[in-house]
Design a protein that fits this description.
CATH topology: Aminopeptidase
Strand order of the largest sheet: 6-7-5-4-3-2-1-8
Strand content: 25-35%
Number of helices: 5
Radius of gyration: 17 Å
Order of helices and strands: EHHEEEHEHEEHE
Number of strands: 8
CATH architecture: 3-Layer(aba) Sandwich
Oligomer: single chain
Shape: globular
Helix content: 25-40%
């Protein structure tokens, strides 16, 4: 499948909210993304779209699945399929950050459950890190559930390290959050790792970017 990275727009919000609903047991208020895009000068949000090219067959349709509790919501249902709405460039994942002084804080990142395991989460994280570098941030930081081993493994692959634990951070089940920080973004080590990860991912995915 071909993909495209774009800045999130207001028209993307309904699809983003649906992905968020399928991904997390705790979701933002309905008007949060609109407020983030229109009023928060510190915020940057991106989406990844499915962009079929000439001759690309559409994926088979999938049934609309019932919502499952976290962490089962992170896994596709057996035999689950995803189909892009005909004639559109559907949003299939999103991510965002806040720039605070010289720190970029990842606020949220998610991929549609039926399309996980393809490298799209890694694509979004690499893009957010690149965006943080372009904004002259020195570090990227985030919180992740203690139980979310898949996400933690991805962040560690990108060079993030555990810096602490926020106890009972998630109010839905009082789960702890692991606080993770990247290496110094301006360091040669981080830049080399970022370039290597992009090259590795490019062997698995085809994408374009308007960012």
């Amino acid at each position: 499948m071909p993909y495209r990275l774009d800045a999130m727009t207001l028209r993307d919000i309904p699809e983003v909210i649906e992905i968020e609903r399928l991904s997390f047991s705790m979701t933002w208020p309905a008007n949060s993304y609109k407020r983030e895009l229109e009023q928060n000068r510190l915020a940057r949000y991106i989406v990844v779209r499915y962009e079929p090219g000439p001759g690309d067959p559409p994926p088979p349709p999938r049934p609309r699945e019932a919502r499952r509790p976290f962490p089962l919501s992170l896994l596709p249902l057996p035999g689950e399929r995803w189909a892009a709405p005909e004639g559109t460039d559907a949003v299939i994942g999103y991510g965002g950050l806040w720039l605070m002084m010289d720190e970029a804080h990842v606020t949220s990142i998610a991929v549609h459950p039926a399309l996980r395991g393809r490298g799209l989460g890694e694509l979004l994280m690499l893009s957010l890190c690149q965006m943080a570098m372009d904004l002259n941030a020195r570090w990227v930081t985030l919180e992740v559930r203690v139980s979310n081993n898949v996400a933690r493994a991805l962040y560690e692959k990108l060079g993030f390290r555990q810096a602490g634990v926020r106890q009972r951070y998630y109010t839905d089940n009082n789960e702890d959050a692991v606080v993770m920080w990247s290496d110094e973004l301006r360091s040669a080590e981080f830049r080399e790792r970022l370039a290597a990860q992009k090259a590795e991912l490019a062997r698995r995915l085809t994408w374009t970017s308007t960012l």
